[in-house]
Amino acid sequence: MKFPRVFKFRNVEVITLHELGVVIEIVKKVESIAKQNRLTKIDTLVLQIGELSSMIPRYVKACYPAAVDGTLLEETKLKIEILPGNAMCKNCNKAFNIIENKSICPNCKSEGWTLLSGKEFMIKEIIAC
Ligand SMILES: [Zn+2]
Predict the structure, then answer these.
(1) Rounded Cα gap, residues 77 and 24, in angstroms
(2) Full set of structural domains in the chain with CATH
(3) Distance from the CA of 107 to the center of ligand 1, in angstroms?
C-alpha cells in the first residue's frame, strides 16, 4: 500500500508545477500591464480557461497564492471562467459540446467536426481598485 501513495503524491506535484509555471508567467504579464497603466493595486484578475485546455482550474487556484506572493497581485482575488469545449459538425453544421456528447454530433452522429472553443487560457479582465 506504500507505493501507490508515493506515486500519487509525485503525480500531483508534477501537474501543479506545470500550472505554477504558467500562472507565474500570467502574473508577470499582469504586473507589466499594471505598470504601463500606472495601476498600483488590482482588485480582481479574471482568467478564462477552456474545458479542453491543459490547465486544470482547481490546480490554477491552488498554486495562485504561491505565484502572487511578493508581487503587485498579492492581495488580488482570482476569478476563473470556464469556456465550453464546443465544436461545429461538418455534416449538419450544428454546434455541440464535445465533452457532453463524447465527440459525436448529437444531431447526425457524425464524428467530423471543427473546434470552436475550449482550448483557451487567457486573461479576460484586470479589475483595478
Ligand atoms: Zn451533425
Answers:
(1) 15
(2) 2-128 (3.30.2320.80)
(3) 5
Among 122, 124, 117, 81, CA closest to 99:
117
- 10-residue averages of pLDDT along the chain (129 residues): 43 66 94 93 95 91 94 96 97 97 97 95 91
Rounded Cα gap, residues 66 and 75, in angstroms: 12
CA of 125 to the centre of ligand 1 (A): 35
C-alpha 96 to ligand 1 mean position (Å): 9
Could you read off the pLDDT of 77-99 as tens digits, one per residue? 999 999 999 999 999 999 999 99
Q: Ligand 1 centre from 85 Cα, in Å?
A: 16
* pTM score: 0.79
Q: How far is the CA of 103 from the centre of ligand 1 (A)?
A: 11
**Strand ranges for 51-120 from DSSP E:** 77-83, 86-89, 95-97, 113-117
User: What is the distance in A from the centroid of ligand 1 to the CA of 109?
Assistant: 6
Smallest CA-to-CA distance from 117 within 90, 78, 82, 91 is with 82
